[in-house]
UniProtKB/TrEMBL annotation:
Keywords for the protein's UniProt record, in alphabetical order: Kinase, Transferase
Protein name, UniProt field: FGGY family carbohydrate kinase
One MF term in the entry's GO annotations: kinase activity
InterPro entries, A to Z: ATPase_NBD (IPR043129), Carb_kinase_FGGY (IPR000577), FGGY_C (IPR018485), FGGY_Carb_Kinase (IPR050406), FGGY_N (IPR018484)
Annotated family: Belongs to the FGGY kinase family.
Location of the Carbohydrate kinase FGGY N-terminal domain: 8-245
PANTHER family on file: GLUCONOKINASE (PTHR43095:SF2), SUGAR KINASE (PTHR43095)
Domain Carbohydrate kinase FGGY C-terminal: 255-432
């Protein structure tokens, strides 16, 4: 794998934590050089989910302080960022935040007024996004309806972190693509999306090319002297970074990543990209590449919640064979991503009986998530005209060997596990520095009996999924 010219400081801006870690010149995490600030979104009954901006940024800076105190920032040559997509903060005309960070999981927004000739499928093909509550085309009109004219500018969490570090409020083509108001082909804000949102480009962060590099402002250069003049690279959206970080950085390979949520994605050139199906989204990785895929809101979060609710002694559904549970679980606890409109609170179990155990319920939920991911994988197979190679990555993958076995049986193909847990940070470094990391982990071969059981289970799952989606959609 190509190497950088020295160690890299990676900042990973997640929904459940902010992290700072040091990677070596091959984008491999340096043992012991990681600091974490746990983050807990504040939830409300009306779909609210917010993060305290100052608390988040101060916690992230404290992580860098921790690495500095441990002597881990010596000889750092690059600073890279991986960040959650879709977040938004409303600002006043002096740049002061008027709201907390509103992350992807917040479900508040309003349908905007649309041009008379608006065609959402054409809009989707151009922006890779939908008129959905995730995106700024709906979030900005909603924030304006709440805040009035005081909201004069808008930015995402990574844009404000970059501004805090360098004094410049800007964004990358990758992060901007997650707002849903970017023209994917040109890499500039989309005129129709801006019209719908009711903003001008000057009210949003400037988009810089992937080769841009900033420098820490003087106060931080004094705080961390070893980082003086170290280039700060544009942030990469976490989904794109995770793909590259697992070793899935071209159109031959799909990455399945399971963290708080889950996704299946393929990285490919933006030039001559295949026509985007309605069911899939598309964002940018950098100036040259795009990433196409499908995301799922219930994954690692569901696993953690269920093991707690059921008071399970193990994160594994012990004693249950893959595909054998009579119970069918539809993992709609956090709703669905666009274009489906299933709201949060729609998770369903079908077929419960008095002899079902906690392990049966956990197995059914992990199986349901696996079948959801497989639905996206099969669409990507069709889009790219081949059965794709598969790599698995993320904390959820490392948390459960049963889930890994279930995924490979559901996919009906071999898969390679990424040996590195910090795929987002690794991928951000790889994107910024032109590295090509490999998965480097075990190769999993699905069990034929598991495959047969899942194949028998699939028609019942799909039928009940349709029923649950129809009953819950809004």
């Amino acid at each position: 794998m190509p190497r950088s010219d020295g160690p890299v400081l990676a900042l990973d801006l997640g929904t459940s934590s902010g992290r700072a870690l040091v990677l070596d010149e091959t984008a491999t995490p340096v043992p012991g050089a990681l600091a974490r600030h746990k983050v807990q979104p504040v939830y409300g009954a009306q779909g609210e989910a917010t993060l305290d901006l100052d608390g988040y940024v101060d916690g992230l800076l404290a992580c860098i302080d921790e690495l500095h105190a441990g002597g881990h920032l010596e000889h750092i040559q690059h600073i890279v960022l991986s960040s959650q997509w879709h977040s938004i903060v409303a600002l006043d005309n002096s740049g002061k935040p008027l709201t907390p960070v509103i992350p992807w999981v917040d479900t508040r927004s309003i349908p905007p007024e649309l041009p008379a000739d608006f065609d959402e499928r054409v809009f989707h093909a151009r922006t890779g996004a939908y008129l959905h509550r995730l995106y700024w085309s709906r979030r900005i009109p909603w924030l304006r309806s709440v805040l009035g004219t005081s909201a004069t500018a808008f930015a995402g969490l990574p844009d404000l972190v970059i501004e805090r570090l360098t004094g410049e409020r800007l964004t990358s083509v990758s992060v901007a693509s997650g707002t849903g108001v970017l023209d994917l082909a040109t890499g500039r804000y989309d005129a129709e999306a801006l019209e719908i949102a009711g903003v001008s480009p000057s009210q949003l962060p400037s988009i810089v090319p992937s080769r841009w590099a900033g420098r820490l402002s003087p106060s931080y250069a004094m705080r961390w002297p070893s980082l003086v003049a170290v280039p700060v690279h544009p942030p990469t959206g976490d989904g794109a970074a995770s793909n590259v970080g697992t070793g899935a950085y071209d159109e031959s390979t799909a990455a399945v990543t399971i963290g708080t949520s889950a996704a299946v994605r393929v990285v490919h050139p933006i030039a001559d990209a295949p026509e985007l199906p309605w069911e899939l989204w598309r964002y940018r990785v950098d100036d040259e590449r795009a990433v196409t895929g499908m995301a799922f809101s219930a994954a690692g979060n569901m696993h953690a919640w269920l093991t707690g609710v059921l008071d399970l002694p193990s994160p594994e559904p012990e004693g249950v064979e893959v595909g054998s549970s009579r119970v069918i679980a539809i993992p709609f606890q956090a709703g669905t991503r666009p274009p489906e409109t299933v709201p949060g609170g729609s998770g369903v179990y079908f077929g419960l009986s008095f002899d079902d155990t906690a392990a049966d319920l956990l197995a059914a939920s992990l199986q349901g998530t696996s079948l959801e991911i497989d639905r996206g994988l099969r669409m990507l197979d069709s889009l790219f005209g081949r059965e794709l190679e598969v790599v698995l990555g993320g904390g959820g993958i490392h948390a459960s060997s049963w889930w890994r076995r279930c995924l490979t049986a559901t996919f009906g193909r071999e898969a390679e596990v990424c040996s590195e847990a910090e795929v987002g940070a690794r991928g951000a470094a790889a994107v910024a520095l032109g590295l090509s990391p490999s998965a480097g982990g075990d190769r999993l071969v699905p069990d034929s009996a598991d495959i047969e059981r899942v194949a028998r289970l699939r028609p019942r799952y799909e039928s009940l999924r349709s029923l649950a989606a129809e009953a819950s959609s809004v």
